[in-house]
Amino acid sequence: MPAPRTTPRRGIAAVAALPLLAVALTACGYGSQAVDDGKANVAHGKKLSADTVRIGYFPNLTHATALVGDQEGLFQKELGGTQLKTATFNAGPSEIEALNAGSIDIGFIGPSPSINGYTKSKGQNLRIIGGSASGGVKLVVNPEKIKTPDDLKGKKIATPQLGNTQDVAFLNWISEKGWKVDAQSGKGDVSVVRTDNKVAPDAYRAGSIDGAWVPEPTASKLVAAGAKELLDESTLWPDDKFVITNIIVSQKFLKEHGDVVEAVLRGSVRTNAWINANPDEAKDSANTALKKLTGKELPAEVIDPAWKSIQITDDPLAATLDAQAQHAVKAGLLEKPDLRGIYDLKPLNKILKAAGKPEVADAGLGVK
């Protein structure tokens, strides 16, 4: 299997400065409850400025950096005597709530909840400090009903949730084809059916939907159920890259424990390099982590194609996050946001420079 390409992704960020979307938004649409996995890696060596750092992430392949970095002990190695504790989440809003409440300090999360959390707090609660993944979103369809993109007209296509990243991406794609859909109801030239990723494969088998614009591994689960890939969203973006997973941090924790944040970022950079150099081992590591977290691993027919479509990267692909926000504005799901200051990439660029790697850009949205 070819290594995941080194640089990230995730559809069109539909965040919600609007109250309706504040509750609706999720990073991947897998529910809304946080699950504390109870793990605490063994700390050894010199303690940093905090006794503990609490990291949140999703049990999803698009969060491979967190899955593998935790599973392989790469974060803990950089943290030394500071103990790593982790908690897993099934939805973006619950992870943002945990960050706001101080239950976690750092999180891996999608662009929509990142934008939502930043704008709702008027820029006070979080910063994006790095990238993690790009890509991994596909339009999969019933091949008996849909053979070309034009065949989608009049069909029922699922997205994970109103205003989530994939929902806005699909609405933007529909708009660019000249078709009309009411964003709120999903009714129009194409029926946009908001369907939780957990039930999308069953909905497809039952004929309730004719296809779906969804992230991995849901896309590959649908293919295993008989669907066919019609479009990989990465092909719609410059250089086939768009952000799907960011690393965010509480501004308070960043200010008080910058050394700990840098240690986690070093662990992230180290993990990403290992994943890209050892794709098969990394895939197995991620699947082992998923089994621990969810009780079952992904079968080869799902994880193999899903893993190939995700790019692991240090670059947050800031320009694509800004574009995703503008797509949400265009769809009428987001008031024009002020994203200036959402990024603080100075710690990451310090680490990349020391490692002899190219620095990454904030698209003019960084702290001054």
Task: Explain what you see.
This protein is of the alpha/beta class and 368 residues long. The chain contains 14 helices and 12 strands. The strands form 2 sheets. The chain has a 7-stranded mixed sheet with strand order 1-3-2-4-11-5-12, sandwiched between helices. α8 crosses α12 (300-308), α10 (258-277) crosses α11 and α10 crosses α14. The model is unreliable at 1-40 (pLDDT under 50).
In the predicted model, the low-confidence regions spanning at least 5 consecutive residues are: 1-40
Mean pLDDT: 89
Largest sheet: 7 strands, mixed
H-E order? HEEHHEHEHEEEHEHEHEEHHHHEHH
Question: Structural class from helices and strands?
Answer: alpha/beta
- The total beta strand count reads 12
Oligomer: single chain
Side-by-side strand order of the widest sheet = 1-3-2-4-11-5-12
Percent helix range: 25-40%
Strand content: 15-25%
Distance between the termini: 42 Å
Q: State the helix count.
A: 14
Radius of gyration (CA) equals 19 Å
Shape: globular
Which key phrases capture this entry?
5-stranded mixed beta sheet; disordered N terminus; 7-stranded mixed beta sheet; 368 residues; alpha/beta
Summarize this, please?
The protein has 368 residues and is of the alpha/beta class. The protein contains 14 helices and twelve strands. 38% of the residues lie in helices and 17% in strands.
